[in-house]
Amino acid sequence: MVVRYFINASDGAAGSVPEKVPDAVTPALDLDVAPGSPDPRREGVFPHGGLAWSQPPNGDGRALAAIGSGKVFGQLNGKQALTVELVLRAQGFSAAVAHPSRLFGLHASDAVNRIDRFSLVAGGSIPSGRLGAYWNQQTPSEEDDRAGQWAVDLSTRQVVHLVVETSAPEVERVRLYVNGSHVPGEAGVAGVTPPSANEPLSLQASDALVLGNAFVGGASFQGVLHYAAVYDEALDEPRLAAHACALLASDDAPPEG
């Protein structure tokens, strides 16, 4: 595991804006919260605390940190397999064609353009009721650059796993699971091209890890992010199912003692 963000109900009063989102994996890459009138705010009670983006999409609120040359760069740069693990509920996404909402991402720290090294997105040019993924973008991410697309209902709290394994057969290189169950990708869809065989992730030390938005802002969603983690491996289906079962029961850190 590379990073793990428990967004606990016990971290602060509901409705307050946190200063940071702490990483539970040492050495920690804590995220700074950059609020955007007034989101994101704490919401929920144990065991389902989270950060809420309550306003319409396309706001600027986000949690982010530069990855530098530390563990995220060291463990993910050049990798052909990795997993993103999220718990979230979402009911609103960007309607701007070229700027889908970002749920999670590794992004270039470009103050103007949205360049997604690896991200999970919805809205924009992506049809309603679908999630998309960007992979290995080195230039501004366009609506037809997606590495995968899936039909998913996120209107209730769900555990979502995005798994990349570029050594797998083409149709299996980017996979999505919801509550431990595989969601078939929409193959042959315009604008979707899987990664090349054995394609490694290419990061830069200046890149940033961002929750709930793009690095530059303006791409928030409407909903609640309860938890996020990243693994430097492609978790297999038994582990995905076990993790989903545990996170459905509680996405807050276990109480101490």
From TrEMBL:
SUPFAM superfamilies reported for this sequence? Concanavalin A-like lectins/glucanases
Note the InterPro entries from the entry: ConA-like_dom_sf (IPR013320)
- Report what the protein is called: LamG-like jellyroll fold domain-containing protein
